[in-house]
Amino acid sequence: MRACRHRWLVALLAVAAVGCSATGDGPRQDPGKHVPRPSVSSPAAEASSPALGHHLPGPNSYTADFTNHTWVDVEGGHILVGWGRDVIWRSTGIYPVASAKDDLYDVLVGAPGIGFVVRQRGPLFVAAGRVPERQVAVGEWPAAWTPSGNLITIGAGTDKGRDWTIALRRPDGSFLRTLAADVSIEAIDARADADAAGWFWYWTAAGNLVRTDGATVVTVSNYRALGFDQPPSISLLAGGLVNLFSDDWHVAILHRDGGVFARASAPTDGSVAGFGSQLASPDGRVVVYALARLGGRRTTTIYALHQGDSSGTPIFQGRGVDWVCAFPPMGWRDGRWLLFRRPDGYTVAIDTSGRRSPEPVDARTAHRLFDASASELTPA
Fold first, then answer.
1. pTM for the model
2. Counted domains in the chain
3. Do residues 235 and 245 lie in contact, with contact meaning Cβ atoms separated by under 8 Å?
C-alpha cells in the first residue's frame, strides 16, 4: 500500500509538475491517486523536539522526508517517528502492525503534530505536538498540516458517489469546520496538498478552486468558468503559477489570484506523448512543456507559453530526446534562457522568447551561467 501512495513529483527548480501521461491515447489515468500521499516533515519540528532515545530504522521502516531524513518505524506495536537516529515521537498505544511501510495506511508528520491511520477507513489518531495520540475520527486520513497549525483531513466516500469531504481540524484533532462536502472522488484526486507557502488547494462541489492556509479560505476560480467539464488536476508551478490539467489534454495556467496566464492543449489520438508536465521559470514569466512525436524517428519539440498565449510556441526540436516522464532541463537564467541537455550529453541554451536560436554550451559555460553541476552535465 505504501508504494502506491507515492505520487511522482518533479523536484526541479522548486517546481511541482503534474503526473505525466505516457501517450496521448485518451484520458490520463493515475490509479490509486485518491489514497493518502507521503508526509512532508518540518525539520524545525524535529530539531526542536527532545529525543526520546535512539533508534536505527530497520528494513520495514520508510522515509517520510528524504531531505530531512525523517522516518517512520514500528517497534513492539508502537509507532516511532524519528529524525536521523533520534526518536522524536513514540505512540502510547500498541497497534497490530509489524511493518511501517506495509501495515500503516498513512502517517503525516509536521511541526503542529502527528496524524496517522493504521487501517484503510479506520480510526484517525492525532497527537498535538509530541504528546500522546488520541482518536478523533473514523474514515478520515490526514492530508496536510497547514501554516496556521491546523490539520486538513480527507473523509473517504465511495468511488462513484459525491460523498467525499475535506475537513479542517485543530492541532489536537478536534473538528473546526468542513471545507468541502459532497465532492466526487475525481475532485479529491485533483487536489494539491501544499504549495511552497503551505497553502492547500482543492475543488468544491460547486466547482470552485479554493486555497487555504488553515486559517484563511480564498476562492480563486471555477473550473466550469474556465471551460472544463470535470475538475482538472491541480499542480503548483514556480513563480506563483497554478497548473490545471484535464484528462482530455487541455491546460489552463492561472496566476495565484485566478487570472489566466496561458492555455495549451495537445492531441489525444496517440500521435504524441509527454503532455501534462509543465515547467515554469522562477519568476513565472514563461512556462515550457514538450511533446514527443511517436512513430518513425522520435522527435521532441519544446514549446514556450507566455502571458496571454492560447497555444505554445516551438522553441527547440531534437531527435532522440526523451521528455515523457521527466524534465531534462537543468536551470534557468534571467527568466528567459533554459539550459537543456540531451541524453548523449549535448547541452544547449534555449531562448524561450524565441528571439535567438538555441546555442550549444560547454560544461564550463553551463556551470558559470546556469550553475549546472558536473553530475547534471554527465550523459545519462
1. 0.82
2. 1
3. yes
Confidence at residue 209, expressed as pLDDT on a 0 to 100 scale: 98
108: amino acid identity, one letter? L
Look up the domain containing 168 and give its range: 34-222
If you average pLDDT over residues 347-365, what whole number do you get?
88
Average pLDDT over residues 225-248: 96
100-122 burial, b at 16+ Cβ within 10 Å, e below that, comes to bbebbbbbbbbbbbbbbbbeeee
| Residue 38 scores a pLDDT above 70 | no
Grid cell in block for residue 53: 532515545
**Listing from the earlier edge strand, what are the strands of the sheet with 62-65?**
62-65, 70-75, 78-83, 86-90
**Does 129 reside within a domain?**
yes
Statement: residue 43 has pLDDT above 50: no
Confidence (pLDDT) at 82: 94
Least confident of 46-50, 55-59, 208-212, 327-331: 46-50
- How many CB atoms within 10 Å of residue 35? 18
**Whether the Cβ atoms of residue 258 and residue 279 lie closer than 8 Å to each other:** no
Task: Classify residue 46: in a domain, yes or no.
Answer: yes
Measured between alpha carbons, how far is residue 68 from residues 48, 62, 102, 150 in Å? 13, 13, 22, 22
- Which has the closest alpha carbon to 295: 3, 17, 24? 24
* 124 occurs within a structural domain: yes
Count of C-beta atoms within a 10 Å radius of residue 345:
11
In a domain, 1, yes or no: no
Q: Is 87 helix (H, G, I), strand (E, B) or coil?
A: strand
Average pLDDT on 166-170 reads 98
**CB of 345 within 8 A of CB of 378?**
yes
Burial of 72 (0-12, 13-18, 19+ CB in 10 A): buried
Helix H or strand E segment including 288: strand 287-293
pLDDT of residue 2: 31
Judge residue 94's burial from the number of C-beta atoms within 10 Å of its C-beta, 0-12 exposed, 13-18 middle, 19 or more buried: exposed
Q: Which three cell numbers stand for residue 44?
A: 524545525
44: buried, middle or exposed (CB in 10 Å: 19+, 13-18, 0-12)? exposed
pLDDT-derived band at 245 (thresholds 50, 70, 90) equals: very high
